[in-house]
Amino acid sequence: MPAFYSEEVLDVTHWTDHLFSFRTTRNAGFRFASGQFAMIGLEISGKPLLRAYSMASANWEDQLGFYSIKVPGGPLTSRLQCIRSGDWILVSRKPTGTLLLDHLAPTGTLLLLCTGTGIAPFVSILHDPETYDRFQRVVLVHGCRTVAELAYGKSTVASLRADPIFADLVNRLTYHPTVTREPFRNRGRVTEIAKSGALGPLTPDTVRVMVCGSPEMLRESREMLEARGFTEGSGNGPGTYVIEKAFAEQ
Amino acid sequence: MTYVVTENCIACKYTDCVEVCPVDCFYEGENMLVIHPDECIDCGVCEPECPAEAIRPDTDEAMESWVDFNLKYAELWPVIVTKKDPLPAAADRDGEPGKMADFSSNPGLGG
Fold first, then answer.
1. Which residues of B touch A52 (CB under 8 A)?
2. Hey, are the CB atoms on B22 and A39 less than 8 Å from each other?
3. β-strands B55-57, A109-115: how paired?
């Protein structure tokens, strides 16, 4: 059995000069839990060139979605950004990841903290009815440098709100986009916003947190959460927070 | 960067980590696992899965020798991709100091 599925690219959207998303077919045998990632990529000179990408689509859809940066000279992304509908990509057969609902003991609020392409795994989480079964309130805080970089997240949340499947659920979703380098209605770093209490108290008594972003953001978030008594969940037992890198830095 | 398996895996050999590795880069010795540093993509998913907290990022202090150790045995032992039972005394020996004295360089069964 080959280690990869070949999936056909269905459409590609370029959001900025360095951000794009794309959708592909989905093999019926490819199953994943909301929040997981898989190795995806292209065959280059007869060899697979792969990077970890979160599935940015619902786990019940018959298509797969991905969201990526474009790194100039990056071995994979410099090529991947050129894909068009009708091209083929490789998707590994083994999805995995830490950002799983099962890794968190359910309680009142699910706080999703992300920067940049770290929003990708939360797209599948937000499109999973199970998320709203387990949590009364879902808060998505997405930090970027510029307003233009928020476009993918904004569009994703808008289409979720317009989806009749989620009509009764999304009134429990709070979306808080924020930027650090130019004027916008929300300013500041994701961790500063979480600490400020503006979106509710940050306590393991009533909040569960999922974190996905840059290495610096992960370090700050872990310190912030551990200092407040949050404990990391895993397959060995649910906790009060989980954390994962935003991938594809090359 | 890579993650590495360290001393506390010896004589426990929980294999929760192999189930979650996206690139199947764990290799099995008789009483310990190692990570192939050249295959690890540094995703970090295995770290919180290890019940013995034996998996560390190589950016932690004093990990250089563990990177060399993991590389050496990853090239000698078979790959392991499927979770199996831990060693019988795993729960008792988790956290025991001086486990290196019991390290076996023999390969495990893999699989």
1. 22, 41, 43
2. yes
3. unpaired
Cβ separation A247–B22 shorter than 8 A: no
Comparing CB atoms, the residue among A94, A233, A235 nearest residue B22 is: A94
| B30 three-state secondary structure | coil
Beta bridge partners of A87: none
Give B-chain residues touching A51 at CB under 8 angstroms: 41
DSSP A240: S
Question: Are A96 and B22 an interchain contact pair (Cβ–Cβ within 8 Å)?
Answer: yes
DSSP B38-105: TT-----SHHHH-TT--EEETTSTT-HHHHHHHHHHHTTSPB--S--PPPTTHHHHTT-TTGGGG---
Q: What is the largest CA-CA distance in chain A?
A: 53
| A/B interface, count of CB pairs below 8 Å | 44
Question: For the CA atoms of B14, B16, B19, B22, what is the dihedral angle to 10 degrees?
Answer: -100
Segment B36-87, tens digit of pLDDT: 999 999 999 999 999 999 999 999 999 999 999 999 999 999 999 999 999 9
pLDDT tens digits, one per residue of A74-122 = 999 999 999 999 999 999 999 999 999 999 998 899 999 999 999 999 9
Single pTM value for the model: 0.94
Sheet holding A241-245, edge to edge: A173-179, A137-144, A109-115, A207-213, A241-245
Say which residues have a Cβ less than 8 Å from residue A27's Cβ, sequence separation at least 6. Answer: A5, A7, A91
Distance in angstroms (rounded) separating the CA atoms of residues A230 and A192: 17
Q: Do B19 and A98 touch (CB under 8 A)?
A: no
